[in-house]
Amino acid sequence: MATGSGYGGVTGAHDKAATPPTQPPVTIHLQVQALHPDEVSAGTLQRIAEALSPVLDRNINRGANVAVSV
Questions:
Q1: Cα separation of 29 and 34, whole Å?
Q2: Residues 6+ apart with CB under 8 A from 5
Q3: CA gap 57, 30 in Å, rounded
Q4: Cα 27 to Cα 44: distance, rounded to the nearest angstrom
Q5: Cα 42 to Cα 48: distance, rounded to the nearest angstrom
Q6: Domains in the chain: how many in total?
Q7: For the segment 1-47, what is each residue's pLDDT rounded down to a tens digit?
Q8: Nearest 5 degrees, angle CA 46-CA 52-CA 58?
Q9: What is the pTM of this model?
Q10: Which domain holds residue 32?
């Protein structure tokens, strides 16, 4: 049986409380190309970013701080 810091393993009685490692933020830059600039509004880009954030957060790394900027 393993003992150690406790994060991801079994803690011993003498160990401190387990704390998860901190992750640096992951930023995704979204680029949308359109034939005419009027075709894509800022609101549309914001909705795309809001839809992508939870998906990326689940798939990049559990516990990652994911921000999608437009």
A1: 16
A2: 11, 15, 16, 18
A3: 15
A4: 19
A5: 10
A6: 1
A7: 454 554 455 555 555 556 666 666 666 666 777 777 677 777 887 88
A8: 150
A9: 0.36
A10: 26-69
